[in-house]
């Protein structure tokens, strides 16, 4: 078999890509669609957190992930990767960011490089679903609040210890009563 | 039939021409005026013969009308809508929850609007500051945004290899300060209530 392995050709992304593209409203046709996506991909690398309509955010996510993973795989000496970065990133100072900041940041990641959240809708307005797209490891305050039910909180530790002590006490009582029963039987 | 129609058309044409001719000769014709009518003529007794249904059907044109009664399912569907497609009645929403962090309502699988607004305001400010600071220079280091007085909390080596952007204000406390104030005053010897403290 002379067939090349697909995994060698394209890097496997850690996000789910739908088999069909999402329709974007684009009077300029396919080229206009690419221009639109190029703008958002560029903005994502620049601002690291964006609020967009859900469809365009989802489409942008795939392109951004692909670009980062290619950059991690091949590095900045690979000509096709560099051409790809040159095409997708309009502000050229961000190409430096991709290879010098994002590649070291994401090279050890086991998860996806971006996150997509659904933004709240203003009830009762009927609006297009909005979403928040961000690069992981950004310098901004985290979108999801810290979880309250942390195990290492002091009251949780104290409650656990109290539970253990209560259980030990109960077991002692049970063993005592069993011993007494044995004495009575004999 | 065809001949009759053409005759009518010619007649109309002639009368129209005659009127125009008169207008040219004598100026505008006088407007139509009221005239007396003979009341005896209008009270003529109508013909007394009965209406023949067969004849009626033969002579008249029938327009389309519903042939069958609509089924109850269809009528109910039109009235209330369909649950699977489009339901017209009001239904209780079951996808609203309260945020564990701030207590506001949020839609299931969406961000909490209150928490998100707080983060968003902060983020836009960060982004503006970073953009202003970096400008058009090639970005070669990670950017860290620090509030006032945060830099001294950690040693110098910690910030090595990072580009620091400092904000001019202190870190916002996302915690209600009122919670620290005591609501009751205990162990006071004085028993009379001062009205000024109530308000």
From TrEMBL, chain A:
<dbReference type="InterPro" id="IPR036373">
    <property type="entry name" value="Ribosomal_bL17_sf"/>
</dbReference>
<comment type="similarity">
    <text>Belongs to the bacterial ribosomal protein bL17 family.</text>
</comment>
<dbReference type="Pfam" id="PF01196">
    <property type="entry name" value="Ribosomal_L17"/>
</dbReference>
<protein>
    <recommendedName>
        <fullName>Large ribosomal subunit protein bL17m</fullName>
    </recommendedName>
</protein>
<dbReference type="GO" id="GO:0003735">
    <property type="term" value="F:structural constituent of ribosome"/>
</dbReference>
<dbReference type="GO" id="GO:0006412">
    <property type="term" value="P:translation"/>
</dbReference>
<dbReference type="InterPro" id="IPR000456">
    <property type="entry name" value="Ribosomal_bL17"/>
</dbReference>
<keyword id="KW-0687">Ribonucleoprotein</keyword>
<keyword id="KW-0689">Ribosomal protein</keyword>
<dbReference type="GO" id="GO:0005762">
    <property type="term" value="C:mitochondrial large ribosomal subunit"/>
</dbReference>
Automatic annotation (TrEMBL), chain B:
<keyword id="KW-0687">Ribonucleoprotein</keyword>
<keyword id="KW-0809">Transit peptide</keyword>
<dbReference type="GO" id="GO:0003735">
    <property type="term" value="F:structural constituent of ribosome"/>
</dbReference>
<protein>
    <recommendedName>
        <fullName>Large ribosomal subunit protein bL32m</fullName>
    </recommendedName>
</protein>
<comment type="function">
    <text>Component of the mitochondrial large ribosomal subunit (mt-LSU). The mitochondrial ribosome (mitoribosome) is a large ribonucleoprotein complex responsible for the synthesis of proteins inside mitochondria.</text>
</comment>
<comment type="similarity">
    <text>Belongs to the bacterial ribosomal protein bL32 family.</text>
</comment>
<dbReference type="GO" id="GO:0006412">
    <property type="term" value="P:translation"/>
</dbReference>
<dbReference type="InterPro" id="IPR051991">
    <property type="entry name" value="Mitoribosomal_protein_bL32"/>
</dbReference>
<dbReference type="InterPro" id="IPR011332">
    <property type="entry name" value="Ribosomal_zn-bd"/>
</dbReference>
<keyword id="KW-0496">Mitochondrion</keyword>
<dbReference type="GO" id="GO:0005762">
    <property type="term" value="C:mitochondrial large ribosomal subunit"/>
</dbReference>
<keyword id="KW-0689">Ribosomal protein</keyword>
């Amino acid at each position: 078999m002379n067939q090349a392995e697909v995994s060698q050709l394209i890097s496997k992304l850690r996000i789910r890509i739908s088999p069909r593209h999402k329709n974007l409203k684009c009077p300029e046709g396919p080229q206009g669609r690419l221009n639109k996506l190029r703008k958002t991909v560029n903005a994502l690398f620049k601002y690291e957190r964006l609020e967009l309509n859900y469809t365009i955010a989802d489409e942008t996510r795939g392109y951004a992930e692909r670009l980062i993973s290619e950059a991690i795989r091949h590095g900045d000496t690979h000509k096709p990767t560099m051409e790809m970065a040159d095409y997708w990133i309009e502000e050229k100072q961000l190409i430096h960011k991709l290879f010098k900041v994002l590649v070291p940041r994401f090279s050890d990641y086991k998860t996806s490089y971006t996150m997509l959240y659904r933004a709240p809708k203003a009830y009762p307005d009927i609006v297009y679903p909005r979403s928040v797209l961000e690069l992981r490891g950004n310098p901004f305050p985290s979108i999801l609040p810290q979880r309250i039910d942390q195990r290492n909180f002091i009251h949780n530790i104290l409650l656990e210890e109290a539970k253990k002590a209560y259980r030990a006490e109960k077991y002692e009582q049970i063993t005592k009563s069993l011993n007494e029963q044995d004495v009575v039987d004999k | 039939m065809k001949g009759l129609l053409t005759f009518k058309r010619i007649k109309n044409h002639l009368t129209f021409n005659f009127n125009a001719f008169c207008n040219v000769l004598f100026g505008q014709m006088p407007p139509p005026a009221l005239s007396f009518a003979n009341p005896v003529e209008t009270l003529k007794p109508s013909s007394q013969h009965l209406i023949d249904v067969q004849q009626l059907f033969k002579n008249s044109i029938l327009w389309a009308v519903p042939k069958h009664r609509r089924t109850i399912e269809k009528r109910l569907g039109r009235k209330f809508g369909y649950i699977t497609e489009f339901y017209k009645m009001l239904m209780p929403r079951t996808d609203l929850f309260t945020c564990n962090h701030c207590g506001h309502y949020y839609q299931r699988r969406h961000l909490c609007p209150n928490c998100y607004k707080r983060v968003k305001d902060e983020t836009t400010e960060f982004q503006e500051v970073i953009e202003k600071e970096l400008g058009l220079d090639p970005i070669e280091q990670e950017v860290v945004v620090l509030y006032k007085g945060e830099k001294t909390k950690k040693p110098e080596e910690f910030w090595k290899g990072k580009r620091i952007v400092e904000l001019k204000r202190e870190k916002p406390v996302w915690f209600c300060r009122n919670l620290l104030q005591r609501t009751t005053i205990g162990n006071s010897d004085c028993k009379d209530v001062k009205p000024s403290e109530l308000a």
